[in-house]
Design goal:
The complex is a heterodimer.
Chain A (H helix, E strand, L loop, with lengths): L1 H27 L11 H25 L3 H43 L1
Chain B lengths: L2 H12 L4 H24 L8 H11 L4 H9 L1 H19 L14 H24 L7 H17 L4 H4 L2 H24 L12 H22 L11
Helix pairs in contact in B: 3-4, 4-5, 5-9, 5-10, 6-7, 7-10, 9-10
Classes of the chains: A mainly alpha, B mainly alpha.
């Protein structure tokens, strides 16, 4: 009984600390230096993926807090749908940014 | 190519707080966080809150899952307003009617086949979650989210919505949850009860009706978040 208690508390501690770590990583993701550091797109993409994993970990935390309803809603909406929405926004942003730079290039060559 | 995206990161680098402000912020945040921890630890023993009241009145609510009872029956007003907020948010998003056409990409075969497999299963799971919500965890929001995920998968795999779904029926499905909620609430007033006060004999059926309409509506609303440019106003 005692070992199970200690195990439970260990899991809780692990979940809480990794949640905080993931939140920090998500916020810091667009300042990280990678080999592709000139591409903001890659950094934002990484931030979104980290955000999705944050959502799934959050739903695990809700299960540990005995709230299965909120855990289901968090996994479906917080991680799944919001993540997909952010990804589609990012692809749209890149599409727009390409189009703007293309028209700018055209204007420069015209003048 | 990605110059405009990169402008954002140079903007962020230029607009950093100076060192003193950052240290001040750190100290303030640490103070705030430690006082929060202190407050949590100095709280008295876990209180029961309103859960005893809910359990004692559970027989009147028409369902046996306390969460559903609170959401649809005891605090129905909150859920009604939540549905309204969701609908308003969608209206706000759709008003950003960008001139970007919905550029279609042919899905790879993995996505295509998996969507064909998954969508019927997701619809089945959604119905199960809706039904099971009356006596165990589940309910309209979870079922609606699963339905919305199925819709997003369909949209991602290049399903041509406008060919299969009439615009009018789409809009009807969007508002059906909220409309059904308000109408059943108002119908109670005909028999001289309060708004959203259900008679406990029929409460189970009323809750099932509201939840099923809300599930359909939430599923359609969540799918519509991805829809910009398909049902655009200009067309």
């Amino acid at each position: 009984m005692e070992t199970i208690n200690i195990l439970n508390q260990g899991i809780d501690l692990l979940l809480a600390s990794s949640l905080l770590c993931l939140a920090w990583l998500t916020l810091k993701a667009d300042e990280s230096e990678t080999e592709l550091h000139h591409l903001t797109y890659i950094k934002l993409y990484r931030a979104i993926i980290l955000f999705i994993s944050f959502g799934f970990l959050m739903s695990l935390v809700w299960i540990r807090l005995d709230a299965p309803d909120i855990a289901m809603a968090e996994a479906a909406i917080g991680a799944g749908l919001t993540g997909a929405l952010l990804l589609s926004a990012l692809s749209r942003l890149r599409f727009l940014s390409r189009r703007i730079s293309r028209t700018e290039n055209n204007n420069e060559s015209a003048s | 190519m990605n110059q405009h995206l990169n402008n954002y990161s140079t903007f962020k680098k230029k607009n950093k707080f100076p060192g003193a402000v950052r240290i001040l912020l750190l100290v303030l945040l640490t103070l705030f966080f430690s006082s929060l921890v202190l407050v949590v630890y100095s709280m008295s023993l876990p209180t029961r809150g309103l859960s005893l009241l809910v359990t004692s009145k559970l027989d009147l609510s028409g369902v046996t899952n306390p969460v559903t009872a609170v959401l649809i029956n005891f605090r129905g007003y909150d859920t009604l307003l939540e549905m309204a907020v969701l609908l308003l948010a969608l209206v706000g998003i759709l008003s950003f009617n960008s001139d970007l056409e919905h550029h279609r990409v042919l899905p790879l075969s993995v996505l295509d086949i998996f969507t064909r497999l998954l969508v019927p299963i997701l619809i089945l799971i959604s119905g199960y979650l809706l039904w099971t919500g009356s006596y165990s965890p589940g309910g309209a929001f979870q079922a609606g989210a699963v339905l919305g995920a199925a819709g997003v998968l369909l949209l991602l795999s290049n399903w041509k919505v406008e060919q299969y779904v009439n615009r009018f029926f789409w809009k009807l499905a969007l508002v059906s949850g909220l409309a059904c909620f308000i109408l059943t609430g108002l119908a109670q007033m005909v028999w001289s009860r309060y708004f959203l006060e259900y008679v406990s004999v029929h409460a189970g059926e009323i809750i099932l009706l509201i939840e099923s309409m809300a599930t359909i509506s939430i599923g359609f609303i969540l799918t519509s978040l991805f829809l910009t440019g398909v049902f655009s106003v200009s067309k």
